[in-house]
Amino acid sequence: MVQTSSPEIRETAEGRGSPASAPPAPPTPEYASWISQDRSTDPAAVTMRREAAELVERVMAHYRDNTTHEAQEQWTEPVSNYLDADRWRRETDAVHRSVPLPLAMSSELPGPNTYKAIDVLGIPVLITRDRQGAIHAMINACRHRGAKLLEPGCGVQKRLTCPYHSWSYDLAGQLRGVYAEKTFGEVPREGRSLSGSRPGSAPESSSSPSTRRPNPTSTPGSGTSSPSLRACASRSATTTPPAS
After folding, report:
1. Is the dihedral of CA 81, 84, 86, 88 positive or negative?
2. 92 — phi, psi (to 5°)?
3. Residue 9, pLDDT above cutoff 60
4. What strands, in cross-sheet order, belong to the sheet with 175-177?
5. pTM as predicted
6. Core vs surface per residue 27-66: b (16+ CB within 10 A) or e
7. What residues does 120 pair with on adjacent strands?
8. Which residues pair with 39 in a beta bridge?
9. What pLDDT digit, counting tens, does each position of 72-130 carry?
10. How many Cβ atoms are within 10 Å of 169's Cβ, its own excluded?
11. Residue 19 class from Cβ within 10 Å (0-12 exposed, 13-18 middle, 19+ buried)?
């Protein structure tokens, strides 16, 4: 619990004094929130500040009284609310797809060359901290055939290497290596960065090169874009290239 302090509280404490033999008390931590700092005058901001302040007061009252917020009477939740797929879709679209989502703590990427892979509503997301310490967020899918680069979790990795055809990327999402490139012909690096690694811009190219020789039968999840990648392409400013 963070203690709060105000001029009134400090004056009262100073007026009481303390015994001469007692060691000086440590300073009371100050707490400042955006509620007190926001000076916006538009109606939405005013309403938000008022509701936030009221919520803080309710939480503090519950803490002091050792109580919790309760409904007026018992409520029975219909089982269908837990099983209705259409309701779930509407809720995720209305809540999770309409606002920025906190997907990682800074402690999960503590230093250079660290990453966190996570699936978010069916979209494979990869968050990295490159060797300069900069943070990047991108789609966790190779630009060649759409294979997942890393399994969900955190770790340390100097290069992101696709397990399918060994295309490799640095932690900023830039394409650095193409295995057996002579079978493709020269692959331009421009426009082949991982989707989303440059926020606000789409890749220059949305196609993937094919080998010069006929390709063997694709393995599941590699020869075609997965449903999660197609969903991502429809909801993101970037696009996932079609498999060739």
Report:
1. positive
2. -65, -40
3. no
4. 160-161, 168-169, 175-177
5. 0.55
6. eeeeeeeeeeeeeeeeeeeeeebeeeeeeeeeeeeeeeee
7. 123
8. none
9. 899 898 999 899 999 999 999 998 888 888 899 999 999 999 999 999 988 999 999 99
10. 24
11. exposed
Q: In whole angstroms, what is the distance from residue 130 CA to residue 84 CA?
A: 41
Helix (H, G, I), strand (E, B) or coil at 124: strand
Structure tokens at 188: 């331009």
Strand order in the sheet with 114-120: 135-139, 123-129, 114-120, 153-156
Beta strands in 121-207 (DSSP E): 123-129, 135-139, 153-156, 160-161, 168-169, 175-177
Contact call for residues 107 and 100 (beta carbons, < 8 A): no
Paired tokens of 61: 């009252």
The domain defined by 109-211+221-244 carries CATH number 3.60.60.20 = no
Cβ–Cβ < 8 Å for 10, 25: no
- 105 vs 108: CA distance, rounded Å: 5
d(CA 86, CA 22): 65
At position 8, the amino acid (one-letter code) is E
Using a 10 angstrom Cβ sphere, with 0-12 exposed, 13-18 middle and 19 or more buried, the burial of residue 162 is buried
**Long-range CB contacts for residues 147-155, cutoff 8 Å, separation at least 24:** 147/221, 147/222, 148/124, 148/221, 149/117, 149/194, 150/115, 150/117, 150/126, 151/117, 152/117, 152/118, 152/119, 153/116, 153/117, 154/108, 154/109, 154/114, 154/115, 154/116, 154/117, 155/114, 155/115
Tokens for 206?
């949305």
